[in-house]
Amino acid sequence: MREVKPQETTRACAFELWMKAPMPMVTFFKKLDVSRLVKISKKSGLKFNMLMCWCIGKAASGIKEFYMLPVGDKLIQYDSIAVNTIVLNKNNEVSSCDVPFSDELLRFNEDYLKLTNTVAQSCENHDLMESMVIGTSALAQYEIDGAVGMYSGIFNNPFMIWGKYRNGFFKTTLTVSFQFHHTQMDGAHAAKFLDAVQKEIGSLTVQVG
């Protein structure tokens, strides 16, 4: 990670417009068809939440705006991406776990299982400060239509929230909310990302054994 001059990036105008805005966050909602993920999860034994996190990381890795993030009053360029997940620890409280993104699904799964287990047992957060982290929160036991994340003024990271997926006659759907800082990306970038998440879900193949 390194600081970059906003004027020398494609986010120069956005940096001037949104860095000092009282509410620079934008939230999109999208209904995803997750039928394939549910099928793969049941057939392979891979966790649905892990598969969602991998598809999110995969989609983000192909969009250059995800590698820049406003931190404090600076614009930071990152070389890698991680996906954060919330873990229920042994004390029945929640802890935070950053999982480094890998193009290899099974490698990502290994890291996901190892790191989330460590966090659950230690009750200590696992933070990857050198990566641009996409936050996620899965309220998998509850049917919600979406959520608008809180803007603390400290963390500007993009963030996705979802609840319980819903089974229909022909497909299984999941409504997600995606919050992002307008300095980092524009609406078109966010919409492209959500479309890319759906594409990754629809094209996912897994070979296990």
Q: Any key phrases for this structure?
A:
alpha+beta, seven-stranded mixed β-sheet, single chain, 209 residues
Describe the structure in your own words.
By secondary structure, the protein is an alpha+beta fold. It has 5 helices and 10 strands; from the N terminus they run E-H-E-H-H-E-E-E-E-H-E-E-E-E-H. It has helices at 12-18, 35-44, 48-61, 105-122, 187-203; strands spanning 2-4, 25-33, 68-71, 74-77, 81-88, 94-100, 132-138, 159-162, 166-167, 172-181. The strands form 2 sheets. Strands 2, 5, 6, 7, 8, 9 and 10 form a 7-stranded mixed sheet that branches. Strand 5 and strand 6 form a beta hairpin.
Helix percent band? 25-40%
Derived structural class: alpha+beta
Which percent range describes the beta-strand content?
25-35%
Rg calc: 17 Å
Ends apart, CA distance between termini: 37 Å
Question: How many helices in DSSP terms?
Answer: 5
Total E-strand runs: 10
Q: Could you give a short account of the major beta sheet? A: 7 strands, mixed
H/E element order: EHEHHEEEEHEEEEH
| Shape category | globular
